[in-house]
Specification:
Strand content: 25-35%
Shape: globular
Order of helices and strands: HEEEEEEEHH
Structural class: alpha+beta
Oligomer: single chain
Number of strands: 7
Largest sheet: 5 strands, antiparallel
Bound molecules: ligand GNR, nickel (II) ion
Low-confidence stretches: none
Length: 171
């Protein structure tokens, strides 16, 4: 197992659109395990492959309080959305910032699981928020894209300053 490095806003690699996974094989399952390790260590409730600089359509999530409900979604597609919920979102790629975002309350998602079997599943509440947030990552989109340009630009400047200070500290 290996913990992976998470890219941080405004890294341009977070804007790449991920391509479909072609085969669910052992190499992909190793990546899934590494993404879970990275997500649980952070700690976070979800992680998209884009955030670890792998531009394939894959995400992991676990919104349980015990960390015992892991989901790995390969090539996820939202088939249906309904209702609206607003919640405070954060992102491991935008550390330290939280903003209200509007998402669908219920979604129906089709994906391949870690065995390559097709699954169709209804999700609601926090799991639905998380999966919508992660699928956005696969399309190069971040939760800060839903807030004002003024706020986003303030966050960009502060994170760039933090990143500068961090890289200066290790030389
Ligand atoms: O850990 C995370 N928490 C979170 C809280 C509210 C809405 C979405 C999320 S996802 C985030 C982890 C992350 O950045 N996934 O891409
Ligand atoms: Ni995120």
């Amino acid at each position: 197992m290996a913990k992976l490095t998470i890219l941080e806003f405004p890294d341009p690699r977070l804007r790449k659109k991920a391509s479909p996974v072609e085969t669910v094989d052992d190499e992909l399952r190793t990546l899934i395990d590494d993404m879970f390790e990275t997500m649980y260590a952070a700690p976070g409730i979800g992680l998209a492959a884009t955030q670890v600089d792998v531009h394939r359509r894959l995400l992991v999530a676990d919104v349980s309080s015990n960390g015992d409900e892991p989901y790995a979604l390969v090539n996820p597609v939202i088939l249906e959305k309904d209702g609206v919920q607003v919640s405070e979102e954060g992102c491991l790629s935008v550390p330290g910032y939280f903003e209200e975002v509007e998402r669908a309350e219920h979604i129906r998602v089709r994906y391949l699981d870690r065995n390559g079997d097709e699954v169709e599943q209804e999700m609601e509440g926090l799991l639905a928020v998380c999966v919508q947030h992660e699928i956005d990552h696969l399309d190069g989109k971040l939760f800060v894209d839903y807030i004002s340009e003024a706020k986003r630009s303030r966050i960009r400047k502060r994170l760039m300053r933090d990143q500068r200070h961090r890289s200066a500290a290790v030389v």
